[in-house]
Amino acid sequence: MTLRYLPDAGKLYGPEFTNDPQAVYARLRERHGAVAPVEIAPGIQAHLVISYQAALDVLTNADGAWSKDSRPWQVRLPDTPGAAAALGMLAHRDNVLFSDGADHARYRRVVIDCYSMIQPHKLRDMVIEVSDSLIRGFAAKGSADLVHEFARPIPLRVFNLLLGRPDSDSAALISALYDMMEADPEAGARGSENYYRYIIELIESKYASRGDDLTSWFIDHPAGLTQQEAIEALVVTLAAGFDPMASLISNTISRMVSDDRYYSSLTNGALSTYDALMEALRAEPAMANYGPYFTTRAVDFHGTWIQPAELVLVSYAAANTEPTHVPDELRSDGGSYLGFGAGAHRCPASDPATLIAMTAIERLTSYLSDLELDVPREELEWRPGPFIRSLATLPVSFTPIRPDQPGESPWSAQSASPSTPSEPTFPASPADYATSAPWSS
Ligand code: HEM
After folding, report:
1. Containing domain of residue 27, as a range?
2. How does DSSP assign 271-315, residue by residue?
3. Where along the chain is composition biased (Polar residues) (predicted)?
4. Closest Cα partner for 282 from 332, 214, 346?
5. In this predicted structure, what is the pLDDT of residue 169?
6. Which end of the chain is more exposed for a tag (fewer CB within 10 A), N or C?
């Protein structure tokens, strides 16, 4: 597919974009205004929505020209490696993210109802156990890569429990998803196969014997998902949750340990973890450009003429940082922002996501209160890719803590806060955290 009018499309790939995406957005804003032509992979073009108001107009479907169904766009793609790369994140599936209208409402009802079944205090206990067990893995070393040793395993181990598998099974899920995200095609294919095997085995085991867990609630929801729809619902829950969740945690920590306003808050409370989280969601949202929409008809949109079945990406990262929109000072609500999206497809899990991130980060910083970045923040490495803003590594140092030292440590406390320890219960079992669905009794 070629779009006629994109001679100076900005590239959302390559080192320039990876190292400083905000500079690319600023240049596009200056040249094109609210909507800019971009390439998301070689030869694959899109319209990037970079103004806050234009982003809201798409997200709320103000003029009825927008759809989440990627199929009309997909069939026009060329058979190239660039298209294959784009399809990894944009190929249509029968799930909440790629549907509109009644289908969307049905899928979304299942996600919302089932997530609302997770009791916040139980989710918090689960995150505490997972966080403490990860902190125990590196606390005595005095250094860690908080992306690989903390931020990425947390959502996967928590999801594994929420979906109804014991924590001891989480290694299979973690290695499958890590392989899937490898650039090496062989590792990617192996990961994808193992990931689907994990989901299919999970579904089959829950069809055979229900538990009090997300998977069983999805299966039994009155919307009556077919087995295939239940598989897709699990795949999208994990896929939509894992990467942004891990990125939100590591992006937020990286801000806290490199900014005195937060650094001092680790010990004597200037700005809070919540403030840092809100700032990360606004200034560096994990779902940077993953707001794919497709035109249902030709539309003159904020001065750009867009043909039917073209890809329009809402750039949460650019919209949130539009100069006329950025609040002068950090407000405790982060100012108005689109870190979790807006409109009909707004993230249905923003509350549990915030709770998971807050709990994990507070657990880490309350044990390791003198965390220091090993390199200046500007030198941190980011993962390449057009959609997600995510650190590749987060190397830190701190005063080591050991199991035998006096005072609270992640070895001695397994309760809601380091100051109120209780007996460890790890490894956790999913049944410890769940509640019963109203439609299951
Ligand atoms: C518990 C973890 C999470 C889960 C299970 C989850 C799940 C989902 C799902 C299922 C959707 C699609 C909703 C729909 O199409 O109606 C969605 C959308 C979205 N999520 Fe989340 N999410 C999680 C965490 C996050 C985090 C941490 C962020 C950002 C930091 C985020 C940002 C978004 C955004 C921006 C959208 C809208 C995408 C669009 O406009 O198409 N999510 N999420």
Report:
1. 10-440
2. S-HHHHHHHHHHHS-SSSS--EEEESS-EEETTEEE-TT-EEEE-
3. 411-423
4. 332
5. 86
6. C
Residue 24 lies in a domain: yes
Q: Is the CB of 280 under 6 A from ligand 1?
A: no
Task: Specify if 306 maps to a domain.
Answer: yes
The pLDDT tens digits for 163-196 are 999 988 888 888 888 887 766 677 778 888 898 8
- DSSP for 23-76? HHHHHHHHHHTTEEEEEEETTEEEEEE-SHHHHHHHHTTTTS-EE---HHHHTT
Q: How far is the CA of 294 from the centre of ligand 1 (A)?
A: 18
Q: Residue 330: pLDDT above 90?
A: no
Ligand 1 neighbour 282 (Cβ under 6 A): no
Query: pLDDT (tens digit, 9 = 90+) per residue, 377-408?
Result: 999 999 998 999 999 999 999 999 988 888 88
> Could you tell which of 218, 290, 347, 391 is best to mutate to test the pocket of ligand 1, judged by most ligand atoms within 8 Å of the CB?
347
| Structural domains in the chain (count) | 1
Residue 2 belongs to a domain: no
Asked if the model's pLDDT at residue 421 lies above 50, the reply is no
Residue 419 Cα to ligand 1 midpoint, Å, equals 33
Residue 164, ligand 1, Cβ within 6 A: no
Report the nearest atom of ligand 1 relative to the CA of 97. 15
- Ligand 1 atom closest to Cα of 96? 15
Q: What residue type is assigned to position 45 of the chain?
A: Q
Q: Ligand 1: which atom is nearest the Cα of residue 98?
A: 15
Residue 306 CA, chain-centre distance (Å), reads 29
The rounded distance, in Å, linking the Cα atoms of 300 and 106 is 31
Evaluate whether 285 touches 315 at the Cβ level (below 8 Å): no
296-308 pLDDT tens trace: 999 999 999 999 9
Q: Does the beta carbon of 153 lie inside 6 Å of ligand 1?
A: no
CATH assignment at residue 147 = 1.10.630.10
Ligand 1 in reach of 36 Cβ (< 6 A): no
* Residue 369 counted as domain residue: yes
Q: Is the pLDDT of residue 13 over 70?
A: yes
Q: Is the CB of 126 under 6 A from ligand 1?
A: no
